[in-house]
Specification:
It is a single chain. This protein is α+β, with helices and mostly antiparallel strands. Helix content is 48%, strand content 15%. The protein has a five-stranded mixed beta sheet with strand order 1-2-5-3-4. Helix 4 runs parallel beside helix 5.
């Protein structure tokens, strides 16, 4: 009786191991089918953009000045050096990264104020926040880098308050409210 139970247990173990092996084989077959279905994709405009993006890699020559800018949750690291007026943000052109013209003007405002737009190149690394915060952070970083480059620029940039950090941030939500100050709808009757 005991021998029969042991042999039955061995048979069930064997059946389970066979089932596991078969499922592994089926998964392997599915993976090979998926691998065979892969097709070479022709170069599309998206891939072309990626190829162009490599041309704007963060290559900064030795004679650079550095500035950091912050706004809301955004942090911008700016490297400024002599050149033809190219501005690269996160390894993309400025217009490609910041799509709105008004924000591009905000970024270029320190250089435009000093009429140095065609004399300097900038490589910028930005992280955090949205496009508006990032644009303002880049503006502050550029202004700080220009002041390091030439301390005489400080007076001109200070007039337009391009050197002051905008310290406004989002107010925290309070309990009993929908947002920081907005309350729930109240109905008297």
């Amino acid at each position: 009786m005991v021998k029969k139970i042991k042999t039955e247990e061995k048979q069930t173990k064997q059946v389970k191991t066979k089932a596991k092996v078969e499922t592994k084989k089926v998964k392997a077959k599915k993976e090979t089918v998926v691998k065979k279905a892969e097709v070479k994709v022709p170069i599309t405009p998206i891939i072309k953009k990626a190829v162009k993006k490599d041309a704007l890699k963060l290559k900064v020559p030795k004679g650079f000045t550095y500035g950091t800018g912050k706004r809301k949750c955004s942090i911008a690291k700016v490297w400024l050096f002599g050149g033809k007026g190219q501005i690269a943000v996160n390894e993309q052109e400025l217009k490609a990264y910041i799509k709105r013209d008004c924000l591009c003007d905000v970024v270029k405002s320190p250089l435009n104020k000093l009429s140095l737009l065609s004399k300097y190149d900038a490589r910028i690394s930005v992280m955090g926040g949205g496009l508006t915060g990032q644009a303002s952070a880049i503006q502050l970083g550029l202004a700080r880098a220009l002041v390091k480059l030439n301390p005489e620029f400080r007076k001109v940039l200070k007039e337009d308050s391009l050197l002051s950090r905008d310290s406004r941030i989002k107010e925290r939500k309070k309990y009993g409210k929908k947002k920081a100050r907005k309350g729930y709808q109240f109905r008297k009757r």
